[in-house]
Fold:
Amino acid sequence: MTAAGLIQALEDRFPQAVRAAHAYRGDATVIVSRESLLHFARTLKEDPAFQMNFLMDVTAVDFSSFGKKPSPAFFASSGVAVRPSPEIPDQEPWPGPPGPGRFAVVYHLFSLPLKHRLRVEVLVEEADAEVDSLTPLWASADWLEREVWDMFGIRFRGHPNLTRILMYEEFVGHPLRKDYAVNKRQPLIGPVN
Structure:
């Protein structure tokens, strides 16, 4: 199934759940309402028309500073002056953030039998940063959701063990949020035994 065909099938099947969709550079992406996520994901996994049996990744994006100032170059922190490269015109520009929410939780799914992939995005506001856990559908969601919780502070309702996975328990804050101070001091933790 082509990216456009997959998007059309999902829009036809879930007219209330799919808020927006695009096939930027051939990658099928649907933006789904938070309330519909669990039902939508269950259908993607169990319906013979989709058979999305492989949850490849779960991550998040913080759009809080998107478009407000130019991003520094990778080596700008070294003090070395970086010359901007000339802009290359893009025939197919990126559609931009999926909406006004601060965060987008991003799921990458793949169908092993049908060989098609799908990106599912769910918009989340900072004041209510919580989505349903997909651990009942894919066991791999366990660690992936814990990583998103640890790095971005987005909670997963119904997760069996939502604890830090990369940072230690006493760590304060979520380091991949755009407002996390890069020079912030953390409490020093001594040996446990």
Remarks:
- The chain has one domain: 1-66+97-182.
- The chain is about 15% helix and 20% strand.
- The domain at 1-66+97-182 is CATH 3.30.460.80 (Beta Polymerase; domain 2).
